[in-house]
Amino acid sequence: MSPSRSPASTASAACWTTASSRWTATRTATWSCCWTDEPDAALFSDDDLTINGGGTLIVTANYNHGIVGKDDLAIDLTPGSGAIIVTAVNDGIKGRDSLLVQGGALTIDAGGDGMQSNNDEDADKGVVTIAGGTIVITAAEDGIQAETRLTVSGGDLTLTTGGGSTFTAADSAKGLKAGVDVTITGGTIVVDAADDAVHANESITISGGVLQLASGDDGVHADATLQIDGGTITVSKSYEGLESAVIVINAGDIQVTASDDGINVAGGADGSAVNGRPGQNQFAASSDYRLTINGGAIVVNALGDGLDANGWIEMTGGVVIVNGPTANNNGALDYDGGFSITGGTLVAAGSAGMAQAPDTTSTQNSLLYTFAATQPAGTMVHIEGAAGNSLVTFTPTHDFQSVVLSSPRWPTVRSTRSTPAAWRTGRQRRSLHWRLHTRHVGRELRRCRRGDPGGRKWAGSADVPPGGGRVVSRRVAHPLAVQGSRR
């Protein structure tokens, strides 16, 4: 490949750069012809295009795209020496049938999409695969967009789209986007997007990697299914953190901050897309909207609902901590169908107006404690057993008036006591730690039916706790209710 001041056009090309080379391809004017509008890029191939080796390739496209391969485009530069720098008024790098990046340093500044594969005529094409390399993209629209499938298995990706999460985008300005599915198994991904940080029109699967996401809309959004099997996911800013019609979390370290719902399971047309931008989320049609948590460590900080399901929630394992809303029109937990918990640790604090707890189909006991007045953020909630043994200590980061607690350590309650006299601000790991605190004052724990958070009965019995025992006190300053079924 040699330097060029006009479009570099080939039928099929393999481009090599040496460690000391520096090549420049520049397109400065509109290209037109009587039978075609191609080539439409500063570096253009009508067939396959492969770029590898060392050295630096600088591409400037003042008319349209930077680099285009009409069939398959592969980039495998030598780590530490191979680099591509693209500046384009439209898309940065496009491989119509497929785009593969395996190594090298790529820097892209694009007025359209940063990287793209856009074949919409073949279900096996329109694929983007990122297996390695260091990629830095600043794009007015989507960062990396695949018409069908987008896979990230390695590399370091830094994507800024639509000006970033503090901006409002008129067009689609997502970080990672696929028309069918997104699969992430590795790599480090940093996204600051005006739109969804990670988006798929069907499904998303995350089993590895480190994701640091800031979004002006959803952190991670899949229209049909979102499954998380591992990895570290931090959504530092979002409207809604994780969103799909079906969400399954089996493992992973997940932290979500949202100005509305933290984890949202919804169906039908989603009206939450900020400003109703083009490509507003459309959920797959289904009568079974479900959030399933089988494992992982999940921390949610939400001003709307913490866990919100327009259907069912099922929890069998893992640790879930919710710092929920302060407004009474939202709840730390919000479900329409039911919430069954059979394992794992759940701690959720929030407002009292819509407070819910796991329902009576659960085999693991749960507590719903409603305070007479709002407690300030930083107030420590400490629960002890009748023998003075510590059950849980939790320090919510938002103001709160209700707390839901459930754990395999939770006993079949006789005269378990809460200890408001022992509340104090303390240091904790992720707002939750276990400790022994022997001071306690008598407060009644009452089991109640679902839908009756201020109830006075043990579910399935009268005023006597399962297994006998006695009520500590009927004159309760702060009503405390226990929800769940007997084990």
Briefly characterize the structure.
The protein is mainly β and 487 residues long.
Strand content is: over 45%
Task: State Rg.
Answer: 27 Å
**Main pleated-sheet profile:** 28 strands, mixed
Task: Compute the number of helices.
Answer: 0
How far apart are the termini? Answer: 73 Å
Commentary on this structure:
The protein is built from no helices and 45 strands. The strands form three sheets. It has a 28-stranded mixed beta sheet that branches. It has a 13-stranded parallel beta sheet with strand order 1-4-7-10-13-16-19-22-25-27-29-32-35, with no helix packed on it. A four-stranded antiparallel beta sheet has the order 42-39-40-43, with no helix packed on it. By secondary structure, it is mainly beta. A hairpin with a 5-residue loop joins strand 39 and strand 40 (390-394).
Question: Which helices and strands occur, and which strands form pairs?
Answer:
Elements: E1 8-10, E2 13-17, E3 22-27, E4 41-45, E5 49-53, E6 56-61, E7 65-69, E8 72-77, E9 83-88, E10 93-95, E11 98-103, E12 105-110, E13 115-117, E14 127-130, E15 134-139, E16 144-146, E17 149-152, E18 156-161, E19 176-178, E20 181-184, E21 188-193, E22 198-200, E23 203-206, E24 210-215, E25 218-222, E26 225-237, E27 240-244, E28 246-258, E29 263-265, E30 290-293, E31 297-302, E32 307-309, E33 312-315, E34 319-323, E35 333-335, E36 338-341, E37 345-350, E38 366-375, E39 381-384, E40 390-394, E41 400-406, E42 417-418, E43 432-433, E44 446-447, E45 480-483
List key phrases describing it.
disordered N terminus; mainly beta; 13-stranded parallel β-sheet; disordered C terminus; single chain; 28-stranded mixed β-sheet; 45 strands; 487 residues
